Amino acid sequence: MTDTTTSAAAPVAPASLADPRVLVPLGLFALYVIWGSTYLGIRYALESYPPFLLAGIRFLGAGVVLFAFLRMRGVALPTARQWRNAAITGILLLGVGNGLVCFAEQRVSSGVAAVAVASMPLFAAVFSGLYGERPTRRETIGLIIGFFGVIVLNLGSGLSGSRIGAIALLVAAMSWAFGATWSRRQDMPAGPMNTAAQMLCASVAMLIVGFASGEQLPAHPTARATAALVYLAIFGSIIAFSAFLYVLKHARPALATSYAYVNPPVAVLFGVLLANESVGPYDLAGMAIILLGVGAITLARQRR
């Protein structure tokens, strides 16, 4: 007689650390917290480093370290097609996307930059629609809620900016959204090599733009600016960008880009803790609405 009771009661194996059900939430946590802090990190680094050279040095250092590590572990080199796709994606995401954020933060505060970049998921939804991947109704509601929260957050910030800075941030958000959407349908390097290749290609482009525009490396950078640059390279580039590419591959675009709604309140919190910035009722209300939008997007993905 077979023991059907034992078979029915057999425990379900727990998810391994390599399971997307584990890594996607961890990746989102890294995107929410680390990338939220990088806006203040860029502000500190700009005390000594010019914007495009800052982006170039950041991604060159991180790219070289990650590429060398992967090669030592025997990871294969990308193919010629993969190098080309990584160069296009890296320039769109890191070159134009992050480079223009550094450029804009010379003229606008880190909070304004975080709020402006929060419009990126809206552009991502538009570009995804061009490929026939439209957001669901629940995801659209989450995007609208999140965008409304960004507006409320901006009402209480009291931050000022320039027209050039605003245009730069808008172009940065559009470039990042298109690069993320386009890369999902291309033959990209596998795993972390994708991150390394994109950072190397973007760093070359940023260094060329920086030197061509007359930027110069600082002779005596401050310790805080250099520490911020190292933080941006290790945490903001290697760890968080690798997490972004992983989440982008294993989750729907609306969830992968939801970090843009969480980054503004995180940036404000870091400003309060480290830069003595004040938080008013509009700021608190905006944070709550933004997190509500992220929750709606997450639930929509689980239902789908």
Overall pLDDT score:
83
Strand content: under 5%
Count of β-strands: 0
| Succession of helices and strands | HHHHHHHHHHHHH
Global outline = globular
**Class inferred from helices and paired strands:** mainly alpha
Number of helical stretches of at least 4 residues: 13
Taking all Cα atoms into account, the compactness measure Rg is 20 Å
Distance between the termini: 41 Å
Structure description:
The chain is mainly alpha-helical. Helices cover 76% and strands 0% of the residues. It contains 13 helices and no strands. The protein has helices spanning 4-8, 20-45, 51-72, 80-104, 110-117, 120-130, 137-155, 163-183, 192-212, 223-250, 253-256, 259-275, 281-303. Helix 2 (20-45) runs antiparallel to helix 10 (223-250), helix 3 packs antiparallel against helix 9 and helix 9 crosses helix 10. It is globular. Mean pLDDT is 83; it is low at 1-13.
Briefly, what is this?
The protein has helices spanning 4-8, 20-45, 51-72, 80-104, 110-117, 120-130, 137-155, 163-183, 192-212, 223-250, 253-256, 259-275, 281-303.
Set out the fold topology.
Elements (H helix, E strand, L loop, with lengths): L3 H5 L11 H26 L5 H22 L7 H25 L5 H8 L2 H11 L6 H19 L7 H21 L8 H21 L10 H28 L2 H4 L2 H17 L5 H23 L1
Helix pairs in contact: 2-5, 2-10, 2-12, 3-4, 3-9, 3-10, 4-8, 4-9, 5-12, 6-8, 7-13, 9-10, 12-13
